[in-house]
Amino acid sequence: MSEPSQLAYVSMTGPDRVGLISAVTARLFDLGADLADTNFAVLGTGFEFNAVCDLPADASLEEVAAALRALPQLAEAEVAVTAFTHASAQAENARITHVIDVVGGDRPGLIARLTEAFQDYDANIVRMNSTRLPGSGRSDYVTRFEVSIPARAEACLTTIDNTAQQLSCTCAWQVV
Length: 176
Fold this sequence. Notes:
Alpha-Beta Plaits; 2 domains; 4-stranded antiparallel β-sheet; alpha+beta; flat; 26% helix; 4 helices
């Protein structure tokens, strides 16, 4: 029989530093945390880290937050640890079926137009990331969508590709 536990949401932002993920995940491990869904991203010169953690039932969320704040890598970072009230297991519409990359110059409304097309096919965006291409000399971006397309995938992908072309972008995808 497994030990009682509690789900917590760990969220932090601050200046990016080398070794940050290693320090954070090691400290969480030392505190008895088991990581579920976890995200990390460098945003400009900063970072964002979010994770759902399964903590021992007797762990204090405030003490977990204090232990993380004590890490030198998190100097100047904002750290929050709160109860996670949702199930840690993903729903069926969170199962990624396709990864789609849209590449091109920055256009006002680009992400709004693309996401409307996903919605028209009941496709759920599980993850999205948009970043400027280094050394492009212009404002060229790659936007990656990891999506769950439950039905009519071919029609959805064609619509996304057509929308991207209308916005002078290219589109490529792969089935997961």
